[in-house]
UniProtKB/TrEMBL annotation:
Pfam families registered for this protein in UniProt: HTH_1, LysR_substrate
Stated name of the protein: DNA-binding transcriptional LysR family regulator
InterPro entries: LysR_HTH_N, LysR_subst-bd, WH-like_DNA-bd_sf, WH_DNA-bd_sf
Molecular functions (GO terms): DNA-binding transcription factor activity; transcription cis-regulatory region binding
Family recorded in the similarity comment: Belongs to the LysR transcriptional regulatory family.
Keywords, comma-separated and alphabetical: DNA-binding, Transcription, Transcription regulation
HTH lysR-type domain span: 2-59
Length: 298
């Protein structure tokens, strides 16, 4: 059976002429609007709109469907209003992009307390910047600034990229090698250890190695796991090394579950930014999320 919300979304697109306009009128995200439309088109078996730039032009079959469902939907909306509490308001939906590890470490613990709906999206930073510019995302947390004139970037914190290891790693031996034999021998010492990496992002390891040894690492990690938080959990087993942002493992270092091995000859730091469009429909909701990030990362 067809989902009634698909028809409501179809009607909103028809009347506003854009996916963004429909999303605003329904107080849902643009990805949600796109999903409803594609599901309805798959259900009926034909295109309902031709996409011209950002405008949605109804096809002939789309016009026929609109004429068929418009009046019944209007009657249902009137019934809904009559039975709805007069003080009840639509709850806005905010779409936020960030890396998976950042979400787990910061915002995840507060999701159930938010006074609005939330959609979390994970992806690469260039992709998230593009989706923010197009209106698909409302806010992103990123270490990289974009160039779009429509986006504001606000620095709010920084992360230091550090070398950490399991509690059984012999840090004294590494420090003695670095102090008495120099950086080249220290590199060889590190390469003899077991290493952890992730399937999608080796950038931290590359940056750290280039900054301290002048070249990319000429070895591959022994263990590839899904994400950086998985690495932290694996290191609690006692052995192994990894290069990770400090905020992901601050508590584990303080508790002694893992060790800070080396900050490097020079500290590798990234500035973290909030990115949002200059003209946003959800300034108070975005400020609420920003406040939670500042609270966690202060």
């Amino acid at each position: 059976m067809v989902n009634l919300e698909w028809y409501r979304t179809f009607k909103a697109i028809y009347k506003t002429g854009t996916l963004t306009g429909a999303a605003d009128s329904l107080f849902i995200s643009q990805p949600g609007v796109s999903l409803h439309l594609s599901s309805l088109e798959a259900y009926v078996g034909y295109k309902l709109f031709d996409r011209t730039g950002r405008k949605m032009i109804p096809t002939e079959r789309g016009k026929v469907l609109f004429n068929a469902v418009s009046e019944p939907l209007t009657k249902l909306e009137e019934v809904e209003k009559n039975f709805q509490k007069s003080t009840e308001k639509h709850t806005p939906t905010i779409s936020v992009g960030m890396c998976f590890e950042t979400f787990q470490t910061t915002l995840e613990q507060y999701v159930s307390t938010l006074p609005f709906n939330l959609i979390i999206c994970f992806g690469e930073y260039p992709e998230m910047l593009d989706q923010l510019d197009k209106g698909i995302l409302d806010l992103i947390i990123t270490p990289k600034k974009g160039i779009s004139p429509n986006i504001n970037h606000e620095a709010f914190s920084s992360e230091q990229i550090i070398l950490v290891g399991g509690k059984d790693v012999d840090v004294d031996s590494f420090n003695e090698t670095l102090k008495n034999k120099g950086i080249e021998h220290a590199e060889e010492w590190l390469k003899q250890e077991k290493w952890y990496g992730t399937t999608g992002d080796m950038e931290h390891l590359f940056q750290f190695w280039i900054m301290n040894f002048g070249h990319k690492p000429n070895f591959r990690p022994n263990y590839i796991v899904p994400n950086l938080n998985s690495i932290i959990r694996c290191l609690k087993g006692g052995t192994g090394l990894a290069v990770v942002p400090d905020f992901l493992c601050r508590n584990e270092i303080e508790s002694g579950e893992i060790k800070l091995i080396w900050e490097g000859e020079r500290k590798l730091e990234n500035t973290l930014y909030f990115g949002c469009r200059k003209n946003t429909n959800y300034p108070s909701e975005i400020d609420h999320i920003k406040g939670l990030f500042r609270q966690v990362m202060s």
